[in-house]
Amino acid sequence: MKILTFTTLFPNAVRPTQSIPVQTRLRHLVSTGRVEARVVACVPWFPSRNPRFGLYADYANVPPEEERFGIRVSHPRYLVVPKLGMSLAPFLLERAVKPVIGRMLKEFHFDLIDAHYFYPDGVAAIMLGRHFGKPVVITARGTDLNVIPEFRLPRRMIQWAARHAAGMITVSRSLKDRLVELGVPAERIEVLRNGVDLRLFRPVERAEERRRLGFTRKTLLSVGNLLPLKGHDIAVRALPMLPECDLVIVGGGPERSALEALARELGVNDRVRIIAPLAQDALRSYFGAADALVLASSREGWANVLLEAMACGTPVIASDVGGTAEVVTAPAAGVLMAERTPAALAQAVERLFASHGDRDATRRFAEQFSWDATSAGQLRLFSRILSAGATDKHR
Q: Structure pTM?
């Protein structure tokens, strides 16, 4: 079957670590040999490539076309309107992408649109599907259902898109529950959780990597964008209660200065290290060398860093939000915090270190989360939708 993956969040040559799970899921699906795929991954239009514009210049530098892991990716530009952007985004996406798909259909006659993120991407995908006569499957991944439906107009558009989607996927049961709360019948929703690349994320020569990275004491690792919702500050605030621990934060974003100031204020700046975002193979070394991964987020869909750390043999300590409780289900995986506070995090660290010592068991736990089951679920869903469409055409 031929599919068109449509999303605004996909890795590209300028931002290769952005939304890797979308790319990884597609790579594994294509590797089954049963799917041929193209990707349309829109980026906001911006007029200047001058580095002083930061992220906006990155958008301008994204190539119009590229190939990633053997898959052709188009990056059409769409207009983002300040203040009105959230409400207009689906319509502006549709307008930007319609001619791109029209040209694509002359050489790539795809059967189905595989859209990621319900809003604005999924809404725009339904508009495009109705225009080109193609069924649409929408995958919900987190913020698109946990936050955006709080706004009245986007909520109504999400509900409209759900009614017209040929199929819907969520990456966790908690996101399925959220869709049901929005009025979508449960039987129309498939839960296909993200997997982990077990060949990429694997145990390392730990003593050697610890020496290379300068880890000399118990080391906690916190990975994610430097934003308040990721809870890096909670990990910093827990350090005074954990005098035997150091903290390494990997990520980029606007909170860096605030985190550095907080560490100085608490007198733990000599035990906190902040590192810019890393490629996945470099991140593997940090996962493998750390004693535990900390994820103190205020919300998550399905946090891939949890499985990536476990696949490297490193247990996790996480806040009980979103799909996290669906990942941390056994002592080998790690522990959930009793509440999202520095004191609860410190207690969880002490509990983990007192009871956990088998890194091989953590790796074995992660091995149940390969991508195979997810790819098989997609193939079943897509085949069912296309078969139903073929039957309808012959009636």
A: 0.85
